[in-house]
Amino acid sequence: MDALIRDEDGRLLIVDPVYKPGWDLPGGMLGDEGPVDGLLREPHEELGPFPACVGRLLALDTVPRNVYGRTLIASIYAVHLDRPTPAEEFQLQTQEVRAAQYLPVAEALARLPELLRRRVRAALDAEGGAGTAHLRDGKPVETNQRDHYALLPAPLMSATALVFDQLGRVLVVEHPYDHGDGIYFGLPGGMVLAHESPRQGAAREIAEELGLDNVPVGRLLAVDHVPADRYGRTVILHVFHAGPFTEEQIADLHFADGEISAAHWLSPGEAAERLPRRVGRRMLAGVKALRSGSIAHLEEGVPHRGSPVGLTPAERERLEQGGDLAAADHLAVRPKALTASAVLFTDFDGRVLIMRPVYRKDGRWLLPGGAINCDAGETPRQAAVREVREELGISVPVGPLLATDWIRQMQRPAEVVHVYDGGALSAHQLASIRLPEHELTQWRLADSEEDLSALLPDGIAPRVRSCLAVRAAGAGAVELVNGRALTEGAVAIVYRPDSGELLLHERDEQAPCWPGYWSLLGGGLEDAEFPDEAVIRELWEEARLRVSEPRLVERVWDLSGSQQLVHVFAAPYDGKPEDLVLGEGRQLRFVSPQKLDSYQMPPYLRAVVDRWLQWRASP
Fold this sequence. Notes:
Elements: E1 2-4, E2 12-17, H1 35-47, E3 52-63, H2 65-68, E4 72-81, E5 97-103, H3 105-111, H4 114-127, E6 133-136, E7 139-140, H5 145-151, E8 156-165, E9 170-174, E10 185-186, E11 189-191, H6 198-210, E12 217-226, H7 228-231, E13 235-245, H8 247-251, E14 262-266, H9 268-274, H10 277-292, E15 296-299, E16 302-303, H11 313-321, H12 327-333, E17 337-346, E18 352-357, E19 369-371, H13 380-392, E20 401-407, E21 414-424, H14 427-431, E22 440-446, H15 449-455, H16 461-473, E23 478-481, E24 484-485, E25 488-495, E26 502-506, E27 518-519, E28 521-524, H17 531-543, E29 551-557, E30 565-572, E31 587-591, H18 603-617
Parallel strand pairs: 1-4, 3-6, 8-13, 12-15, 17-21, 20-23, 25-30
Antiparallel strand pairs: 2-5, 3-4, 6-7, 8-11, 9-10, 9-14, 12-13, 15-16, 17-19, 18-22, 20-21, 23-24, 25-28, 26-27, 26-31, 29-30
């Protein structure tokens, strides 16, 4: 029975026995005792008492009788010192050994006899693996293929899960023991068993630790490689997504096996502060991969440079310009965007066709359309045609592109939506609509601004309004960001309720567009400003005119001037004309509708004013 003992620097302890030539491992012949008792007795008889514990069996060697005169079963066990013990602290029993030394592995092996050297080398290989070296005369015994691969050195396999609740918080568990760094917090998970896949291991650990059965484990978020210096073996850790847990599941959490003492639902930032640093980094990388639709490749929680979540834009640009990224890494780290197509249909009264999907938990409605199968070579227009056929069950020609909408999202990849004009559907075509029950529950026509705002998601309602304005103006395809035109304006038809006169503003030669024309008060939207806020601000700046709730009349494109989508409002004015103060331009003037022809107005605004006057005059 021999003991393989290392010091804190990984050097091997060998002894020079008195009773035979050459150096040896601490140990000796087994008496009428078990292996553990023998291994604790023999080294103490050679080196004096020292604190140690016997670990696992590393090698078992059968030496045939022709070597020593009878068959010998020799074994090597890992023996671990309870505390660092320098060689000079050993109390050498001179009747047993002359010397004891810690030596680097290569130097120690060189001092051992050939047969023992082979046995120790096999034990060292087994130390880095999962099995025991089975030897005959110091050489590996031939095994079948399955046993061969089972004995090869291999990393440990572990699986954990990022469990979320409905609010996007992460489950952080508290253990009754610390993780070696004084921190008691961790994530659910554990070691993957030999017969399991990582996903199966994660599901089992969730069931055992949280007391919940049948929790679906979602997609893989990250793979983290932990080097051997922490656990003595390399660990490959898989991070999966689970949840979001319902309130009922959260209420059912219980910790029957005692591995967890408490559970905490924390934001990702709060969780990173509670968890050990390496685990916090791993968790944040997994959250980022979840939001970006990618998989993080990590080394001790730090993303590899080829990982899609591994580089900031500035670092990515530096590596790309320096040519330091391989072609595959370059593709992996480039930003990704989702792509979709939608179709705007109305009836002959201008009401917008919308549908209620099964999968939206908020009950909001959408335009017909869906994701573009760009990986199969599908174009945006082809996707629009296919989605109309699949969702509405009708085949109608899809008209021109109305808008391309770039949707900025901080928590997930950006999305590009191409909106096409489906035209006006007849009563017969509307009656022919057949919805797929597994995807859509009903369709309807939204007939007002209030309908669009109440039924559509906040990000889609502005897109529909912009596309309706594009269609009405024949403006061609426009570029939108989060449903709104890149440049927008707001003007107001200010009128006197008693006389019906309209307030016109004469622009001077410094005006960026339509210089010298008579226009409506207003201007461009500033950053993050809504159209009604802009028109209230512009009326005050240009005329010291206060309004509180201007009413939207319509939206129109200024194709020949500012190229803006202009929101036209109407606002009554009961004050005195002399109370108005000109802020810019040449002059302000109230004009009777009958005299508008005497004033040169931008054609697109004159058309809006004429439509509004006609509406005012109608019953």
